[in-house]
Amino acid sequence: MNVATGRRPDESMTLLVEVMESPLDAGYAQAARRRAAGERRHRSTLALLGLLAVLLGLMTVAAAQQLRAPVEGVSAREVLQEEILARQATAEDLRERSAALSAEITALNEETLAAQDAELVDRLRLDGVTTGSVAVSGPGLVVTLSDGAVGTAQDGSATSAPVQAIDLQRVVNALWASGAEAISVGGERLTSVSAIRHAGQAIMVDLVPLPGPSYAVEAIGDPEEMQTAYARTDAPAYTQLLSSQYGIGSSLETADSLELAGVGSQLLRYAEPVEADVSPDEDQEGNP
Predict the structure, then answer these.
(1) What does the DSSP 8-state code read for residue 201?
(2) Which residues fall within 8 angstroms of residue 225, CB to CB, at 6 or more apart?
(3) Which pTM does this prediction carry?
């Protein structure tokens, strides 16, 4: 007689039941669970990195736009221009002070020498006019050169024909040859050691830049004689060539009164022969 005890019929087949119900080992199942959790974390990490990259890109674009946008206020170019103008004003004040002191020294020298040698004083005054150390005034000629008009080339770029340093040199040399007693270019008095040259795009007289676009060459002397002699030089034909080929303007006018400032006293430059340490006889003996 069978009596019910509440036990499973397959209780004696526990191993087979576990194989049927749990075909995977417990270790494999745990590894699968960890892998699934890792994939979820990896996906969340990728999403976070993508969001960070988008934010960095937006910040970079905003910074670039701010750099390209015009900055309100004073630019570096304006600051530099103001500094250049201030330095030029300082240099001009120093030149005026130097000229005033030189004039005072000249007056004292003339006062001292007048009682001793009047002819020497007159000769010094004439030398001062020639060297440009003293201010002079009188009638003369004014030759003006102006930059050519700005045009447009075939490729669309802007073209211009500015006055060159050699153009002013040709005019100045012609005026000296015509009998000029004193000359200034752009308000700068020429001396016996003056130089007219280019520095970049600027024309300079004794390291002083001349403001363009017009350059006035003032020469003191007899206007009629100078004008006649100037017409015989090659300067009029040269300026006519500049006008026809480059559009550079030129004009010649007589002036009843011109005033040219002096540059003050100048240092004299001279050379001395170098004395040889060895006499020619000793040199010949040492070098047969």
Answers:
(1) T
(2) 178, 179
(3) 0.60
